[in-house]
Give the backbone structure.
Amino acid sequence: MEDEADYPESRTSIYTTLAAGSQFRHEIEVKRSRFITVLARTADEDAARSVLAGLRKEFHDARHHCFAFVLGPDRDVQRSNDDGEPSGTAGIPMLEALLKRETAPGVADLSDVAAVVVRYFGGILLGAGGLVRAYSESVAGSLELATLVRRRRLRICSVRVGHAGAGRLENDLRAAGFVMAETRYEAQTTVLRLALPDNPEELARAADRVAAMSAGSAALLPGETEWIDVPIS
């Protein structure tokens, strides 16, 4: 399980982000100006600014390197910059494209994403309205093509059981739809580990199921939380 960022006090336990891996790039042309959008998954502000610094070096001959990023499960870190474009025509439209991107009907929860738009001026002025549309559409269009995942905070719980009954209980838990983490083997017992939604109701239901499946011989012991990626079906 991947623990890319630690947000122990976030109000939400699920949000959407880019799939882990390399940067996602997409380019459009508007009246001979090139707009190269680069999207990157970033765990913190330092990582987001590192992406920008790297692209400034890579596209050192471009006139503008505008950026926007939103970070954290609660999206409480939001930054943008016009990098020489008229005020409000680049960074803010880019940020709004990130914030307004629907990841499910009526849901806009995209976070931990940095967007940089590199512009090569084509010699034709676009005007304020044209710039707003170009930068907004560059990011929005790129997000439509990018692979997204759900980021969920799960509570890792343990069930300690004798070796003889461990295999059967694990199979029963999997059949019931529980997400299993790695199993640990100790001298006298096997420790089954489950990844459960981090809320009291789910944990209570899981504890009841474990007790019933084990005829009262095993108990669910809540542990630490981890953030993991879940594919969007």
Notes: The radius of gyration is 23 Å. The longest strand covers residues 148-162. Residues 127-145 form the longest helix (19 residues). Confidence is low (pLDDT under 50) at residues 1-5.
